Amino acid sequence: MTLPYRAPVPEMLFAMRELAKLDEVAALPGGGALDLELVRSILEQAALFAEEVLLPLNRSGDQNGARLENGAVKTPPGFAHAYRKFVEAGWQTLAARPAHGGQGMPYLVAAAVNEMWAASNLAFSLCLLANENAAETLARHASPELKQRYLGRIVKGEWTAPMALTEPQAGSDLSLLRTRALPDAGAYRLFGTKIFITYGEHDFTDNIVHLVLARLPDAPEGTRGLSLFLVPKFLVHADGSLGERNDVHCVSLEHKLGLRASPTAVMAYGQKDGAVGYLVGEPNRGLEAMFVMMNRMRLGVGIEGLAMAEHAYQQARAYARERVQGREPGAASGGAVPIIRHPDVRRMLMEMKARIEAMRGLSYYAAARMDIAARHPDAAERSAAQNRVDLLTPVIKGWQTEQAQEIVSAALQIHGGSGYVEETGVAQLLRDVRVTSIYEATTGIQAADLTSRKVARDGGATVARLASEARAVCRALAGRQDDDRRAIAARLDDAVRALEEATRYIVEHSARAPANVAAGAVPYLMLLGSVAGGWQLARAALVADEPSRAIVARYYAEHVLPRARAYADEVLFGADSVLRLDGERF
User: Is 461 exposed, middle or buried, given 0-12, 13-18 or 19+ CB atoms closer than 10 A?
Assistant: First the structure.
């Protein structure tokens, strides 16, 4: 039996208040009556929904899975009902713009709530995340007519909106996409096949609105020739009523390692006369529009990693407190004790706890920067916040999902043999979390984006500003009179120095030795993530009164931050051994 997950509301509120600076976010234009107590109420209500509605469906959803029957997808028992309750409660509207029927809450609040949805039932939450981000994409790029006809229904959750990018021959290389869009009487007819479409077909709603990348007849080659189209499952009349079925069909579902309750569809557009679609934004600029959704999805997937790690940690902690086995080390007599009293189990739990707090701090910090970038009245402040978001997006997506896999694996290790069987539920967590470092672009792709576009392009300036802020925290901690904070300061200072050295290498070699930089891109991403997470824990230790914050931060400083030097050495010295063997000698 799976042990219960409980949303860590106090931990969330601490990270929002102290690290993300909730008061500053609330003071932004449009913040209205937002304050700590309102946020606390929202989180507590979300926790009840996550724990009482979504969590009970997590294991049964994995056991039953989604099914394709006569072209229609049936989600596991209870899923469609839970979705209706989710929509009726208004959760889908939380962060959407008020002009389109949303509540207009900051992304910071949405990030915390999304953590709960993912932790309690990741397979279910995938539909919600796509809807939220598709709505923002359409709000920014769709025509007034498309907004009027479709956006409000998507914001409210009455219709869902998956994104359809990948094709069998293309994978992550969108320049190879072949789906065609032919002009037809003010609209377009689409022909092509898309794979790995999360919730491309389901039984939650009576319409599904696909956002599809395709090529116009005169489009240039590569990604510059992609346009974005809105393709509904059922056509929609001017009065909002549903019309005839569009030429959009699910032809199969993927059989997956995990997330079995989430239908991952192969979609055929235009098996007969062509799927009717409507252009979103400008011709041949579809990728620009789609990147609104893709970047927000990447941050969301990073939060999924945090969420799954939290769920696994809670389950491992509860098991370690209850499982009695072995005598306590050093005891000359006495019976068996709970395994949480064994040092190695405590080490694993501390490792999990420290990394999770670092991930949550970094995720919420980035979420607040998104709010500042969108709503701050000063253009310079908006620009600086957006630069920080751009830098941290591949880190949060890549570093946190890689961390999550290690954390969930450690939870299974704490369970011992019981973790390896399905009954305890830890095996499902490990299967489900595995894809998070793959979808929305793999860790390698995130790392390439980080080193080439985010670091080299601005000469390392954005990283330098982050490093400067981390050093300021080091100086403040070093001035304290306790050993914990001084130790944190010393270790973080060393890690920042390693980051600066690796960043200089990336900047200096990106043009003249791009293969060498690419060989060290993932280690660099892991380096930046480790340091950024340590910076957040150091900030927590600086402001928190309770001793546990400093203890956790010191553990991270002494057990995680030393890896920064190893990551830096991989960047600085490791390229030759990566590249020396040719393809035939592996």
Answer: middle
